[in-house]
Amino acid sequence: MKSDRFVPSDERTFLIRAFTVFLLYALICLAPGCGGDATSGASVDAGSPFATLPIVPGAITKATVPVPPEMTGGIGSGLAFDPTEGVYWMVTDQQPAGQPDWPLYLYQVRVTAGRAEIVAAIPIKDGGKHVLGGELDPEGVALAPDGTIWMSDEGAPFLIHLTRRGEILEKVAPTELLRGREKNRGLEGVAVSPDGSTVFAILQNAPEGESDRLNTVLVSYDVRRRVITHHRYRLEDPAAFDFPANLMVAPRAGAHDLHALDGRTLLVLERDNQSAEAARIKRVFRVEVPPQVGDGPLSKTLVIDLRKLGYTFEAPEGLTLRGPRTLAVANDNDGLAEMPTEIWEIAF
Fold first, then answer.
1. Reduced to 3 states, what is the DSSP secondary structure of residue 175?
2. Cα-flanking dihedrals φ and ψ of residue 183, to 5°?
3. 195 and 38 in contact (C-beta within 8 Å)?
C-alpha cells in the first residue's frame, strides 16, 4: 500500500498541521479530562472525568481493524488518536517467531460508526532504508504536539523519534537499568506530555536487578535536557486474583501502554497473559508521577476494569483517548491473520 497521498507533501502543510495539532491538544487538555501541569501541586482537577474513579462506562463501540493486504507483523500493540485527521495511529511490531523479517509500518486507521479502515501505510525508515522487524520491535506509539511521533521499542530497547513520514530522527539509547531486563520485555508503552517536553515509557516487567518481580520501571525522558529519570511502578499481583487452577501458562501481569493526561498524570494499561474465561487482569490505572523520585512505587488508582465490560482478549496493549470522555483500547494480534485486532471506544 502506498502512503504518499495520506501524508504531508510539503513543508508548509507540515507546519500548518503541526500548529493545528498543538492547538487541538491544548484545547483537549483545557477541557474536562486533563488538569494541572508539570509543576502544579495537583495534577487532576475536580472537574476532570478522572478525578472520581473508577469511571462509569457508557456506550461501547467495537471496530475490527482489517488485516493489511500484506501481513507485516502484529498490529495493535500501540494506539494514539490524531484529532487533526480523525484517525488512530498504530504500529506493526516484530514478526512471529520462526517467520521471515517483516517490514515495519505506521498505520493510520479511521473508525467511523463501528467500522475501521486502514487509510495509510507508512514505511518506517532509517536513513531512507525500510526497517525490518529483526532490527526493531516497536510496541507503543504516541503523537507529540509538534507533529512528530515517538515509539517505544522492546528489543534494544530504544525510545525512537520519527517524522510523520516514518523517517527515524533519533534513537534515545537506554540506561544500564533498562538494558538489564528479560528478553522481549523491554519498553512497551509510550506517551508524550501535552506540551511535548517529556516522553514517558514503561518496561513490561521488572528489570533483572529488581528482587521484587512486581516492581517495574516507568521512565520519564526530558526532551530538552536529554535526561532519563526512573520511577518504580508496581504491577498487579496475580496471587490476589482467582485464576483457574492448572493453567498451561502461569499467570503473570505486565504493563503495556501509557497515555499522558498532563505533565505528571498518566493512564497505564496492565494485563495478564490469559484469555477468555481465564482472563483476570485487564485494567487501566491513573498514576501520578512526582516531581522528585521517591523510594516507593508510584501511587495508582483504578480507572476501569475492562474485564467487567466483557473484555477477554489476551493482549490489550494499545491505549489512548479519542476525546476527553472516550477511552480507546486495542489488542495486539501477534501477527496472526486469524486473530482480530479490535479497537474498543468506551464512552464515559
1. coil
2. -60, 135
3. yes
